[in-house]
Design brief:
Order of helices and strands: EHEHEHEEHEH
Strand content: 15-25%
Number of helices: 5
Shape: globular
CATH architecture: 3-Layer(aba) Sandwich
CATH superfamily: Alpha/Beta hydrolase fold, catalytic domain
Distance between the termini: 23 Å
Largest sheet: 6 strands, parallel
Strand order of the largest sheet: 2-1-3-4-5-6
CATH topology: Rossmann fold
């Protein structure tokens, strides 16, 4: 739950469920803590087939509807502007729903998988129409988000936007979760002043 003075509510979407992604992922947890630092209520949930969630993975299709359902719940419960954050697969799905949704005031993409991962290829063209404040945080050594490709994508997006590359971090921000959290908290502070 959030504080009485909460100004936003947030949703955090986890990485790929077929590769161990759940709402308990460390990146998801630290993102939730960073957003909750401001007193905002934050919802994490398991996509279909992840953790104790029922159903089967739907390759990002049914998961889009799950993000919409989560946003509807947050809106009904809190009646606040929404922030959507997602890590890896969660960013590919969550931001696709969040960008056109007028209830969402800002988006956060973590470990954006801009290069193919096995047979998974994500299309981020939709971000080209997203004029909301956007934060992207990746590790400098992210094997699924090569720096040049990520910088090219973010550079072509409309303002406002910010890209933070965390030195020494890989896709999972191993050993660099504190820096991830600080990047989110700093950006939220900047966007709210």
């Amino acid at each position: 739950m959030g504080a009485e003075h909460a100004t936003h509510a947030a949703l955090v979407c986890h990485p790929h469920p077929l590769y161990g992604g759940t709402l308990h992922n460390k990146v998801v947890f630290h993102t939730m803590k960073a957003l909750n630092h401001f007193g905002d209520p934050v919802l994490r949930f398991n996509f279909r087939g992840a953790g104790l969630s029922q159903g089967e993975h739907d390759h990002g299709n049914g998961e889009l509807e799950e993000v919409r359902t989560a946003l509807d719940w947050l809106d009904r419960e809190f009646h606040l502007p929404l922030i959507v954050a997602g890590f890896s697969f969660g960013a590919a799905v969550g931001l696709r729903v969040a960008c056109p949704d007028p209830r969402v005031s800002a988006v956060i993409g973590l470990g954006l998988p801009v290069s193919a991962i096995d047979d998974r290829v994500y299309d981020f063209e939709f971000l080209g129409n997203c004029a909301k404040p956007k934060l992207f945080v990746s590790g400098e050594r992210d094997q699924f988000g090569p720096r040049a490709k990520l910088e090219g994508l973010v550079g072509a997006l409309p303002e406002p936007k910010k890209l933070v590359l965390i030195a020494g971090a890989d896709h999972f921000f191993a050993g660099r979760l504190r820096e991830l959290r600080e990047a989110i908290e700093t950006w939220v502070t900047e966007t709210r002043t």
